Amino acid sequence: MKKLKSLFIASIAALTLLSGTASAASVKLSVNGTAVTSPSFIQQGTTFFGLREMLNALGVGQIKWDAKTQTVTAIKGDKTVTVTVGKKQVTLNGKLFKQLEVPAQSIQNKVYLPARVVAEAFDYAVKYDSKTSTVILTNGSSTSGTSISPEISIPDLDSQPSYKQKALEKLSVKLKSGKLEIIDAWSGDLSIQKIQIMDYSKIMIPSLPISPGYEGITIDLASFVDDSGRPLNPVDGEMYFINLVTDAGSIVRSETYQASTPTKADEAAVDDIKYGYMGSPIALEGDNLVGDNLVGDFSPKPAFTITQIKVEDSYFYTPASPITIDGQNQKFSLPLTQFKNTLGEDFKAATGWRQPYKVTIITNYGEFSWSF
Question: What is the pLDDT of residues 104-159, one digit of tens each?
């Protein structure tokens, strides 16, 4: 995957909801009154800035990187601070200084540090100016800006009902099989206004409710486009940042794309196709076998399409266009004479006692077989 424009994360940090619409604003960094340019992002309430940009701005004289252990050692005067990617311990002069909620991150070969803890280790006060979306670091105590809670939070969340905040925190967000899966198993009372995946975005007009329960909602990844209108084409095994803007605030998650892993909705759809409400959905219908039809009767939640039907793996029916099975069209009925073998001969069902026939349908969810 090509180098990502500023890792996108500079543009996904701290989204503020105004009048029910999303207004994106990057979290800025100011050190002793000087603006510092650095990529940034927020993950689970913790704000991160680029390692070198932040440490240089803090006046750190020595920065050592151990590639084997993924540990950065920052030395300034009589202070030595160590932070390891993926680990939650920050040490100061060899002793535990703080236990992190979210560890340092390495993304596309660039390391990002949690702003508050690293700044405080070097005796900087941390403030947040909500009007300018700026993290303000100053030597010693400072009265400028607005104090923030243990970690820098996304603005405006405190104005939301606590149950909505909890639901937002507990959202399950996955990238699977060409889709974005979002599951709210906690409240079912959130709606999405905008989603950004790296440089690719999708605005929901109107806002999209997140259905509660096991399946949640899925959105095709190809529907996300960049500024040039190009669709997202994810790479299997690649990690992506996902920013969800909801009516309760926004969250950023990092997820690895799993091309061959079905979503929960896909798994449920497979069960619907296999079993429906009454077991096998395939049957013969008619007063005599000469005029019999092969009938499929389904009760699907998501729609699916049928591109071919086989009987006994020898007789085939391929419709001119796929058969759509959905809430309005749950049934198909096809004369057995439409099923032909490679010689062009019609399928003829036996009368009286017989062995079960095997019927296979080929769908956008795969192949399914029954015997009747």
Answer: 988 877 888 998 899 999 999 888 887 788 889 998 543 344 333 333 333 333 34
- pTM above threshold 0.85: no
Pairing of strands 28-31, 134-139: parallel
Poorest-pLDDT segment among 95-104, 237-246, 290-299, 360-369: 290-299
Long-range CB contacts (within 8 A, 24+) of 258-263: 258/174, 258/175, 258/176, 258/177, 259/176, 259/177, 259/178, 259/234, 260/177, 260/236, 261/176, 261/177, 262/176, 262/177, 263/174, 263/176, 263/177, 263/179, 263/181, 263/218
Of 103-112, 161-170, 297-306, 335-344, least confident by mean pLDDT is: 161-170
Burial of 217 (0-12, 13-18, 19+ CB in 10 A): middle
User: Is 357 in contact with 371 (CB distance < 8 Å)?
Assistant: yes
**Domain boundaries defined on the chain:** 28-139, 158-259, 265-371
Q: Which CATH architecture has domain 158-259?
A: Sandwich (2.60)
Domain 28-139: which CATH number of 2.60.40.3140, 3.30.457.10, 3.90.950.20, 3.40.50.150: 3.30.457.10
Which one, of 85, 36, 77, lies nearest residue 56 by Cα?
Answer: 36
